Amino acid sequence: MTHQASPALLSLALALAEAHVPVLPLREGKRPFGNCQNCTRSACGDRPHMKAAGPCQCPAPCHAWGAATTDTAVLTSAAWAGAWRQAGAVAYHPGGAGLTVVDLDDADAVAWARQELPTTKTVVTTRGEHWIYQGTMTSRNGVRTGVDIKSLMSYARWLGPGTGRMQLLPDAVRALAVKEPTVVRSVSGAVTVPAPVGDGVCRHRSPAYLERGIAMAEKRITEAPDAIHKTVYRMFLAVLSAHGRCSCLTDAHIGRLFAAAQAKGESLRNCEDAWANARTKLGM
Predict the structure, then answer these.
(1) CA end-to-end span of the chain
(2) d(Cα 62, Cα 59) in Å, to the nearest integer?
(3) Distance between CA atoms of 143 and 167, rounded to whole angstroms?
(4) CA-to-CA distance for 220 and 173, rounded, in angstroms?
């Protein structure tokens, strides 16, 4: 990285910060700068801090994604000057900007996304694509071959604004980050599955978003070529993780999911067990 290119990277970082996108410099090779001497080996007591979504309290660009900031005074400070002189790229914290990036690392992963995920804003990368959705979630690498999810407590390289219209984060992406148990516990005595109790108002999504989520889950179950038990469980888990706690689900919504599963050969008892296990997994 040449010194002459640093002003261009800093200028880009400042423009992003003004657009409320938290940014940080990356070394050559897309790696963040290491922690400063005061913060190395967590000497600064950063463990509690790292549970939150930045910015890092250290004056230097420490703690990777935790250093991302929209504070232009910090970005142009003397403590960050050395990092910008050595920087090879600008990164941003997707979760801090209210976004989730599905990082598709190769052509096979891109082909899978085009079949399985709603189209959204797309950024071309060196080997694949970034699909960007509005909304945040847990980050997780390796959700399937060539696919990482970058949102909360993560960073992504800035490669341009992308093309296409950004969509709301779908349940199909949320489901990718949910780790399934090795064995799904059967819950005895579960003979009915009432909708969650509440006022029926979805506080974080519109009714149309819920409808799309239910329809997507029905589609995934209906089109599953095999492993129907696993598919049913994953779709129940995805719907509950997005909408179970705000009590916007109704008996009619649950009935649609059960009907789709039963049409694929699942028994009512298997559906009830899968629903109960999904609720248990999520602590509901």
Answers:
(1) 51
(2) 8
(3) 20
(4) 12
| Residue 244 φ then ψ, to 5° | -65, -35
Residue with the larger pLDDT of the pair 258 and 183: 258
227 alpha-carbon distance from chain centroid: 25
Quickly state the pLDDT bin for 93 (edges 50, 70, 90): very high
Using pLDDT thresholds of 50, 70 and 90, give the confidence band for residue 167. Answer: very high
Which pair of tokens denotes residue 25? 């410099």
User: What distance lies between CA 192 and its chain's CA centroid?
Assistant: 32
CB-based contacts of 179-182 (< 8 A; 24+ apart in sequence): 180/230, 180/233, 180/234, 180/237, 181/277, 181/281
Written as one string, the DSSP assignment of 197-259 is PS----SSS-HHHHHHHHHHHHHHHHH--S-HHHHHHHHHHHHHHHHTTTT---HHHHHHHHH
Among candidates 225, 239, 228, which has minimal Cα distance to 193? Answer: 239
pLDDT at 58 over 90: no
Quick check: 48 pLDDT over 60? no
Dihedral pair phi/psi, residue 134, rounded to 5°: -85, 120
The alpha-helical segments, DSSP class H, found in 78-203 are 78-86, 107-116, 171-176
Amino acid at 109: A
Q: Is the pLDDT of residue 207 over 60?
A: yes
Which secondary structure element, helix H or strand E, spans residue 279, and what is its range? helix 268-281
Taking only the tens place, the pLDDT of each residue in 22-33 is: 999 998 878 888
Burial letters for 181-206: b for 16+ Cβ neighbours within 10 Å, e otherwise? eeebeeeeebeebebbeeeeebeebe
User: In 16-128, where do the E strands start and end?
Assistant: 23-26, 89-92, 99-104, 121-124
Q: What SS3 class is residue 151?
A: strand
